[in-house]
Amino acid sequence: MPSxxxxxxxxxxxxxxxxxxxxxxxxxxxxxxxxxxxxxxxxHVVSELVYVPFESGRTFSGLYSELIPFDELVxxxxxxxxxxxxxxxxxxxxxxxxxxxxxxxxxxPYSPQSIRAYSSKGKPISLRTV
Length: 130
Fold this sequence. Notes:
Blueprint: E1 10-12, H1 14-27, E2 33-38, E3 45-50, E4 54-56, E5 61-63, E6 74-81, H2 90-98, E7 102-107, E8 115-119, E9 124-125, E10 127-129
Parallel strand pairs: 1-3, 1-10, 6-7
Antiparallel strand pairs: 2-3, 2-6, 4-5, 7-8, 8-9
């Protein structure tokens, strides 16, 4: 039987998805950014948002890199786009390549249907709500 090198699909807790939507709405028209955490080292279930101080505006968001925890349970990032586009910019792709394995963008109007997931290489990946 051939072995598969594909990683398991990413999942996200419904409560985390709701939190992402609420934070994006509260920060509108500015972007927000946070980190994504899992409960166990090998888990593919995003179970928490990890907030660190950030700066943002209508077209950017950035974390204070010196305040990012050195924690293997942090697996990626989430940020909002105050437009209907959830496609990553070049700046987003740069962050993706440096900060984890899964990255989410939630676009206006910040509903579960407006969120997209990407790999560290900026490739679209599936995300299932649990």
